[in-house]
Amino acid sequence: MKILVTGSTGLVGTALVKALASDGHTVCRLLRPQSKSTSDSKDGFDVAWNPATGELGGAGVGPDAVVNLAGASIAGGRWTKDRKALLRSSRIDTTRALVKALAKMNARPRVLVSASAIGIYGDRGDEVLTEESKPGTDFLAGLAREWETEALKAEALGIRVVLARFGIILARHGGALAKMLLPFKLGAGGRLGSGKQWMSWIMLEDVVGIVKSMLENSTVRGPVNVVAPGAVQNAEFTKVLAKALHRPAIFPAPAFALRLALGEMADALLLSSQRVTPQALGRLGYRFLHPELSVGLSAILKET
Prior knowledge:
By secondary structure, the protein is of the alpha/beta class. Helices cover 38% and strands 18% of the residues. Helix 1 packs across helix 5 (204-216) and helix 7 crosses helix 8 (264-271). It is globular and about 60 Å long.
């Protein structure tokens, strides 16, 4: 297949592009004017892409599939008014521009896999959340709802749309885990707040495998929770991580201190609870490479 990928320089994009190219697909990495490719030439080629003008390089025309992973990092800075505007535009405006570009193509892709996030559910305590659960009402939930709405407009073009609601992605380099490791390695790790909030995690290798399944399986459409089957509470996650690192976990971070340091972002990313289950993936029979947190973390940490 010829596959266009936005957000190809990010954590998921870099790993996905490499895997798709290895499988023999032709991968077109859509890059904005200010972006620089971090991929090897053997993993595909770069295509100029300007969401502001809708301009798309000629090499990107006529794809069989599109994977939309574009979006500024949610944890990339304190949520000021300007930062929130960037988070919105990099997701909502970019996805809108992408769908408009696809509408102009004579030969349109069969499928669009568009990133979303389990943040769409908001802070839900111990409630078990499936793809049918109602969205939340906070900033992240609203952001994800609008993001998904723009992607779903591609259905009117005859394109199958899959909404990949990513959980907390754990990887050897980058992402949430990289930020957690330092305090634990220094022996200063511990639970966040009460530690009772649920963390719905998934290993990067499984994310790649799931996205590939979304591209290949024509029956997959709509929202899909991209999380492992074993969500854990923060206190348990902390214990498992500390054990894998052979370090103590005795220094909890009080909720008030996190809010003081990070503002609104602390509640949304560190203290909110989302107990998400991969119901759609279960129906599809996806077999996880790392269904258990302890085994997955041990595999990652052996190579960090």
